[in-house]
Amino acid sequence: MFKNFGAKNILPTIILAVLLTSYALLLAHPINLVTADLGRHIKNGEIIWNGNFNVLKTNFYSYTYSNFPTTNHHWLSGLVFYGIWHLGGFKVIHIFFILVSLATLFIFFRIATIKSSPAIATLVTLPLIPLLLERDEIRPEAFSYLLAGIFFWVILKIKNGNLNPKYLFILPILQIIWANLHIYFFLGPVIIGTFLIEALIEKNSLLRKKLSLTLLFSIIATAITPFGINSTLAPLTIFKNFGYRLVENQSVWFIEKILPNPNYLIFKIIFLVLILSLIARIWRLKSYKTLITDIIFTLGFSIASWFAIRNFAIFGLFALPLISGNLVSLFKVKTVTAHWPERTTLALLILTVLVILSGELQTVYPKAQKLGLGLENRNIAALDFFKENNLTGPIFNNYDIGGYLIFGLPHKEKVFTDNRPEAYPAEFFEKTLIPMQENKETWNERKDLYKFNAIIFSYRDYTPWGQTFFARILKDPEWKTVFADSRVVILLKNNELNKDAIKKYGQSIEIKR
Questions:
Q1: What is the per-residue pLDDT for 105?
Q2: Angstrom distance (rounded) from CA 311 to CA 9
Q3: In the chain, count of helices (H) and strands (E)?
Q4: In the 3-class helix/strand/coil scheme, how is 338-406 assigned residue by residue?
Q5: Which has more confidence, 285 or 57?
Q6: What are the φ and ψ backbone dihedral angles of 458, each rounded to 5 degrees?
Q7: Crossing angle for the helix pair 75-115 and 141-159, to the nearest 10 degrees
Q8: What is the DSSP string of 38-86?
Q9: SS (H, E, C) 77-93
């Protein structure tokens, strides 16, 4: 891999190792299960493993819409997460996620070295890491990033004559797995199709035929799931019933006005570098025909990221080889051994590691978090409190905390809502959940309808309706606070059923916000 540097020079290998170590440390921050999807994914896996497949095609977890049809397109990820969690708990699943993320970065780094050199790839990687950290939560999409890199690497190696075309048969097999892991499975056919377009333009008949068959079988593979053709169509239909506006699905120009985030500026700078370097490369070559894949990937992932910030990470991964290839072409450099400041770079990377370990990175990069593996300290204390005191529902909860409750509530308890907009009718969010929090009269009307006995609320919910409801409910004499930590509050209805718990715990509780 590092032959351009000379067999005796181990500095590039050390630099890559330190680079990956830096990335691993930035991923190693305690898990906040309260607002994460991970708890629900683990519960999905547990239920499927125990033979109950209703979780695949219905809402299942909510008492409001238990039988509402939905497609659990990440069910296999749930099985993987549950298996790892069952074996070693949250620390092991955290380590597994970090290893998958490191493997992904390594593959895209390897692609970047094929297109340029290890030196240039290292230079380009450093400013991209913040974009990768935008999706640092343990989610099924980590598998999509890894598989996208594998697809890209395999086809590029075959195109360059460094891998036997027979290995293309691996891709449809991987596509079957991908279609059951995460909804970004459509990236597999997109990557194959992009290289096929390039083969057609370059009139590469052999590669064209092989990629055509690979694309056909990969598209068929997307339907080999418990949902058949509905799975193939899921990326096109999922937003037809989406009644809750998620931050991650918002455009850059919309969300940057509401939530400050240094990554928005970083994204814009990287995007500008990518576009300008591609334009300069096309101008220098006086042709675009040999750059079809680069152009399609640049435009596709850039547009996807501008319209939804959840795509920052996949944009950053593809930007790594794209920018690297553009730079090496512009400067006519295939190897920069003689001019590459290896010792300086290594020193800077080691300094970066030391800064991360010291915790001082937060002063210059607010999104950096404290080091740690597994759950935050006492992160499931609210769940333990509910179970240990034999509290009962029906429960009212807000959107963010749904996955947490699904993971840890007693089996008999269901949630009011959870963080899957596609699993509920859009009107449920628009006419029930949000108005209940915004409007006192609507709340009073619906609380009697649902007969709420407890409220479990993630009070770092910064939606306007969440803040309005939380401020109001704390003053409502009908509800008594019995538990509060740094993230969750539990209130019980002031009735005969809850009198013992309220007497024991319903004192003045300080809520630190």
A1: 96
A2: 37
A3: 22, 4
A4: CCCCHHHHHHHHHHHHHHHHHCHHHHCCCCCCCCCCCECCCCCHHHHHHHHCCCCCCEEECCCCHHHHH
A5: 57
A6: -85, 100
A7: 40
A8: HHHHHHHHHHHHTT--HHHHB--SBSSSTT-B---TTHHHHHHHHHHHH
A9: HHHHHHHHHHHHHHHHH
Give whole-number Cα distances, 481 to 172, 273, 276, 449, 498, in Å: 54, 52, 56, 22, 11
What pLDDT was estimated at residue 345? 60
Closest CA to 21 of 352, 425, 364: 352
Q: Which two tokens stand for residue 363?
A: 């002063």
Q: Closest by alpha carbon to 87, among 52, 135, 45?
A: 45
- For residue 370, give both structure tokens: 């404290």
Do strands 454-458 and 488-493 pair parallel, antiparallel, or not at all (unpaired)? antiparallel
Question: Please, what is the average pLDDT of the chain?
Answer: 87
Residue 299 backbone dihedrals phi, psi, to 5 degrees = -65, -45
Separation in Å, CA 231 to CA 58, 79, 184, 221, 406: 14, 18, 11, 10, 24
User: What is the C-alpha to C-alpha distance for residues 501 and 499, in angstroms, rounded to an integer?
Assistant: 6
Question: What does DSSP say about strands 479-484 and 488-493: parallel, antiparallel, or unpaired?
Answer: antiparallel
Give the pLDDT of residue 207. 87
Sequence-ordered alpha helix ranges (H) in 133-169: 141-159
Mean predicted confidence (pLDDT) in 464-490? 90
DSSP summary character for residue 496: S
Per residue in 199-213, pLDDT tens? 999 888 888 999 999
* CB 217 within 8 Å of CB 168: no
Question: What is the C-alpha to C-alpha distance for residues 474 and 462, in angstroms, rounded to an integer?
Answer: 16
Q: What is the DSSP letter of 152?
A: H
Q: Is 259 helix (H, G, I), strand (E, B) or coil?
A: coil
Range among 58-72, 165-179, 339-353 with highest mean pLDDT value: 165-179
Q: Which residues, 6+ apart, have CB-to-CB distance to 405 below 8 Å?
A: 383, 395, 397, 413, 415, 418, 456
The reported pLDDT for the residue numbered 512 is 60
Instruction: Check residue 415 and report its DSSP letter.
Output: B
CA 57 to chain centre: 22
What local confidence, expressed as pLDDT, does residue 19 receive? 84
pLDDT tens digit sequence for 61-72: 999 988 888 888
- pLDDT tens profile 224-241: 999 988 888 888 877 777
Q: Are 453 and 393 in contact (CB under 8 A)?
A: yes
Tokens linked to 256: 């940057």
Contact status, residue 418 vs residue 402, Cβ threshold 8 Å: yes
Show the tokens assigned to 284.
């220098």
Please tell me the distance from the alpha carbon of residue 315 to that of residue 309, in angstroms, as a whole number.
Answer: 10
